[in-house]
Amino acid sequence: MGALVGWGLQKVETPVIKPLLQGGLCLIAIAMLSWMLLWMTQNAKSLKGEIENSLQQVLTQDDSQNNQGGWAVFFLILTAVLREGPEIAVPDAIAPVPWCLCGYTLGKKAKSPMPSDSNTK
């Protein structure tokens, strides 16, 4: 869906429509994130209780069934952690490089001398 919207935005050449679409999509994203935040605030305690009860049931049944439930919980958590890692690490590793190069280049071109303390009295 996101790729389709991105492709559509690239094809829009009108200088008025493109900013309106981008602004509209930003407002939709803000509304969705705000709704999710409010929903999570209201439902966090009940979700926590449901998850804890389900885990307790799986782990107590697990004692009689060769420890398979414990391994299932372990791999579920491992998968969640491994999935989140690249989402955070990759943009943080890639994004600063162009900005650092841009800052370095602009700094080299500007290269204005800094006033020293002896000149400013």
Gist of the model:
With 121 residues, this protein is mainly alpha-helical. The protein contains four helices and no strands. The N and C termini lie far apart (62 Å).
Mean pLDDT across the residues is: 74
Alpha plus pi helix count: 4
- Class from helix and strand fractions: mainly alpha
Weakly predicted, low-confidence segments: none
Shape by Cα distribution = elongated
Cα-atom radius of gyration: 26 Å
Report the order of strands and helices: HHHH
Number of strands: 0
Fraction of residues in helix: over 70%
Strand-residue proportion = under 5%
Distance between the termini: 62 Å
Task: Describe the structure in your own words.
The chain is mostly helical. It folds into two domains: 1-9 and 17-40, no CATH class; 51-108, no CATH class. The chain has helices at 2-11, 17-62, 68-94, 96-110. Helix 2 (17-62) runs antiparallel to helix 3. It is elongated. It starts with a helix and ends in an 11-residue tail after the last helix. The mean pLDDT is 74.
Blueprint (SSEs and pairs):
Layout: H1 2-11, H2 17-62, H3 68-94, H4 96-110
Give the key terms.
0% strand, 121 residues, 2 domains, mainly alpha, elongated
